[in-house]
Amino acid sequence: MKVLVVGGGGREHALAWKLSRSKKVKKLYAAPGNPGIAQIGTCVDILATDIQGLARFAESKKIDLTVVGPEVPLALGIVDEFERRGLKIFGPNQKASRIESDKAFAREFMYRFGLPAPKFQIYTSASSALKYLKTVNKFPVVVKAAGLAAGKGVSVVASRKEYEKKVDEILVQHRFGEAGKTIVVEEFLTGQEASIFVLTDGINMVYLPSSQDHKKLNDRNRGPNTGGMGAYAPYPTNKRVTNIIEEVIMQPTVLSLRDQGIDYRGVLYAGIIITSLGPKILEFNCRFGDPEAQVILPILEGDIIEPLMAVTERKLADVKIKTKNHWSICVVLASGGYPYEYRIGEEITFKSSLSKKTLIFHAGTKMEDSKLVSASGRVMNVVTTHENLKVAKHRVYEEIKKIHFKGMYYRKDIGNSGMKKMKRKRRR
Ligand code: GLY
Q1: Residue whose CA is closest, atom 3 of ligand 1?
Q2: Which of 125, 81, 77 is nearest to 101 (CA)?
Q3: What CATH number should be reported for the domain whose range is 2-93?
């Protein structure tokens, strides 16, 4: 088979790596890919947003399956265009992708079908958004641009003054352009967060390991939000919470999407918060998480092609996915200053060779004068797996000591919440 991966970040490197291990995959392409993917496949210089360019490439190379990493091409309708041309592609179509690309639509959908979610309001003008202040008596609240805003559209607002400023920024100054034409204002919830992934062909569902992302820049979940500073899997939820997630959230969501005439085929990613009142949906995404994919894919047994093809062909009922009895942990190495201003072009060096068991997934790197250099805020993902989470964590941080680039920054506490949970479980 010939397979094309769309995208060029850590998630896409993890997808390409897993695909490269399939006996069925004889030729692997990535567009645009990255220097890490270039070691296992052929990178082609087509942007992930160039839908026509990608479709022409897939036709010319007779690609058997295209796997889409990021949300933007999905929201632009890459799946609709590929299917129109008779090309097989993994991911939801444009209408189904609204579950992520239109947060107002997603919240109304959750409300209509009684899915557990925070209270929310939707506004399209500053004057109506400011009236919200007459009804609210508790801060913080969450303000979201309804459209895709490259992970920057969600703010936790701590006071009336901040709220007014945020409304002005999005609905008056149009900071996010079209993506900020509508805002969703939500109740702020507290609790541990978990990322839940299912593959679905619109009817059948197969669960992938749950995971926990670490969105804040600094240890102990302090500092500004980022695209994700690390993750571990599986996220250890107890039986009661797991049942609620599966039976009250995921299954009804897939059924309700179908009920709405939405042909959702792909991965459905629910960002869940486990509050004192039970799990609630923070958001739905229409693709694999980043950096969650980097921890989930290494602990999946078997050939990934089979479930991905089954999703596109609506044959998921026949598929089972086995997970290794391992923990997986990913630490993101970021450029100093990220998520604000940071330098790129710093040479990445390895003081000694990494263990063969360690996985490196490139995120923002490039080759410059035959040297590997940083090219973005999140630069690299270092991943280890082990039966014991403590050992996996120890190893990942030992491996990181071998990697260097000027200004390299990373969190030191990835996996701690899992270790605490396991300790409490052992005590009981
Ligand atoms: N891990 C967050 C995301 O992929 O959106």
Answers
A1: 289
A2: 77
A3: 3.40.50.20
